[in-house]
Amino acid sequence: MSEQIFNPNPEFAKDAAINSMDAYWELQNKAIEDYEGYWKGFADEKIDWIEPYDTVLDESNAPFYKWFSNGKLNVSNQCIDRHLADKADQDAIVFEGDKGDVQNITYAQLSERTNKMANLLKNKFGVKKGDRVVLYMPMIPEAAYAMLACTRIGAIHSIVFGGFSAEALKDRIEDAEAKVVITADGAFRKGKPYMLKNVVDDALSQGGESIESVLVVKRNNEEITWVEGRDHNYNELITEESAECPFEPMESEDPLFLLYTSGSTGKPKGVQHSTAGYILWAQMTMEWVFDLRQNDVYWCTADIGWITGHTYIVYGPLAAGGTTVMFEGVPTYPDAGRAWKMVQDHNITQFYTAPTAIRLLHKTGEDEPKKYDLSKLRVLGTVGEPIDPPAWKWYYEVVGNSKCAIVDTYWQTETGGHMISPLPGATPIKPACATFALPGIMAEIIEEDGTPTPVGEKGFMCITKPWPSMIRTIWNDPERFKKSYFGDCKKDGEPVYFTGDGAMIAEDGYITITGRTDDVINVSGHRMGTAEVEAAIKKHDSVAAVAVVGKPHEIKGEGIFAYIVLKCVDDACEDLKIEINKVIKKEIGAIALCDAIAFVPDVPKTRSGKIMRRILRSIVKGEAITQDTSTLEDPSIVGAIEKIVKEA
Ligand code: WT7
């Protein structure tokens, strides 16, 4: 099946934004010939500039690139105000709650609520341009209002995924030195209320001194504790605010938001995105990759706590003037047909999710999609990890009824938007293949010195020219930014952006992503740094040393497997494993829990003390050890560990 090619549906291609490979190459060749001219054309066409920019791309302080310098714009204008003339009554957001409650929010209402929230932040809490606001929110429309309200007044939001622990939340608040936290009492999942505000309370009792105010949205109306003077009730205060808050003219390069992500050390990185470049590419990819058209209803199942939720639930769809669906619940509750019922009920035209969700939906309800009318669907998207051919096939045949394009979108938190993806009206698709770089993106698979990796071999996935929506820096740590992304690969002697992924190019130019080349595990499409999990595990008193690796998992893609050396061998027992997982839950959150733990006498280290993770990965997969073990401090340890893992 991997040799099969699926051509775009001609009926659909006819009206698509980019409707043939010729059209694709016309754009890409224009970018190759005149890179700045190419981007200038789109920036002028798409962005509602308050003041014009003077330079398209400023490379003078590489790799701290600047795009559209000195231009002024506002992202909330780009996403709301400029649509009001002709779309005031169109749905901007369609919200469906866990229990099936629906709210249709028009662009006029979105404007009103965003303006009120902006006024509240500005007038009541004194939030000013450049201040950081942390959002610890469930998937409710107020999360979108809060994001847009921040951008309206020039505050920098930093969303912390609701699955992170108090400890993780506190660390992120402190790194960003945030002034305000916006949260909710909690929300609903699988028919039951769950809580968030108490986690904020915990975080702030441990630190986070910079926080002056906590704004609480009421969603599930469960009882919560209020800290006098610090905590404020959104639902009460918002009624007093005016629905008019002029938007702050922002410089193109002003930071738009921070989003923390795992890296190769224990400390998460605050990825900083810019204003103009980010919103431009969010909008363009929305129009191209999802082929968003008038009257479309688009649904992305991500959480706003991840980059997909930023770019493809809020900023991209709204900048493009679309209708975006927000869902509070999980796609398999109350039954395996929930997602498909929603697609039917809301007339959804584009559906975007992750391979882990596709595998889960497939496993729990193979024929479930057939029970619903999914005939409006045109484009199906996937993101987060390489999709396996069986999941792809089910998605294509059963969900898409063999007539929808599948866009396997490859990108990262740091790229801001899609980098490599099929275009639904143009690209002949190969299953489970990200295909080609999008027009304007110079993606190359190279060796460290910049020589192209031979066809069919694994190389480093690099983006060799800066692009508008790229990460600008790591908050408070420009050196780490340089080292993390521009330290590994060079082209023509100059450092180029390395994604951390491996990839292969085929004879015909098709690109397949092969996965991370660094110590990062991809759990359910989310990045988890091994160092971060190890740092958490080390906090347990019984632990002397630890190494974690990814272990293939049927639904999650990869699960976390920990090799732990105890200070005292006699402590080893099942209860200790539970206790260690509790520490992880406290330090990071449930998303980082280990699927399995093996207590081992030691971990394989080189004589210089470096853990040989490759050996540990092979052991967990049950593969034969092909690496040279003679350089190990104690080669006999490998056999001992293999025996323990086999017996476990
Ligand atoms: C990493 C980025 C981008 C939003 C979700 C995750 C992997 C992402 C694909 C894909 C193969 C993919 C990469 C990347 N990845 N999309 N279509 N095919 N791998 O964002 O947490 O920043 O993780 O996810 O390894 O580096 P993230």
UniProtKB/TrEMBL annotation:
CDD domains per the UniProt record, alphabetical: ACS (cd05966)
One CC-aspect GO term: cytosol
Gene3D superfamilies in alphabetical order: 3.30.300.30, N-terminal domain of ligase-like
Root EC class: ligase
GO MF annotation terms: acetate-CoA ligase activity; AMP binding; ATP binding
Segments forming domain AMP-binding enzyme C-terminal: 532-610
NCBIfam families in alphabetical order: Ac_CoA_lig_AcsA, PRK00174.1
Descriptive protein name: Acetate--CoA ligase
